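Protein modeling request. Please complete all fields; requests missing the sequence field cannot be processed.
Requester role: graduate student
Desired output: 3D structure, token encoding
Chains: 1
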Amino acid sequence: MRKLFTLANGFVFSVVLCAAAGTEIVCALGPGAASYNPASDQRPTADAMEIATNLSTAMSTLCAPKCPEIPLFRNPTAANVMLVFGSGGAKVVYAPAFFQSLYDNYGEGALIGVIAHEYGHALDEIYPQKFGNGGTPELRADAWAGCALAKNNPTPARLASALTGISKYPPPGNPPWEIRLSAFKLGYAKCAGDVSRIH
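Delivered output (199 residues):
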């Protein structure tokens, strides 16, 4: 399996949800995290892997030399898309039906947005003060997603699609969208993105 980032020694995740024994869900963008079965993890589709690889390339300039290693898996028991920590380390897991629906309804940018949010949680654990001391882990993950999108330099349509994907699938207990959008814009601007492109 291709690795997306280089593992940092002593990398630790903060945990907000628990699922199957030995598995901790850091963030789940959808219901049903308790039914996640790690034994059903499969290699990602080629198009999902391409999106993740492009994102990781853009994000690697932000975290070097301490970038977490985050492989991508598909799993029909996943709660839409999740960042999971288990005995094998951290991983992003997505439900294939969710990714297909997200793509069909909102386009490829929406996939980029939700993956960037999940990776944002991992980066926030290493650099928690990148976007200031305030805000919840979810807001900081949104800021990281904004930063990743700025570095990815999406077309206006893809950027709008990414924002739609992030807004349509909030994490549990999330703040109102206006607050999340402000966090996204903060990250986008801090990573040299033109905030006037965000509508």
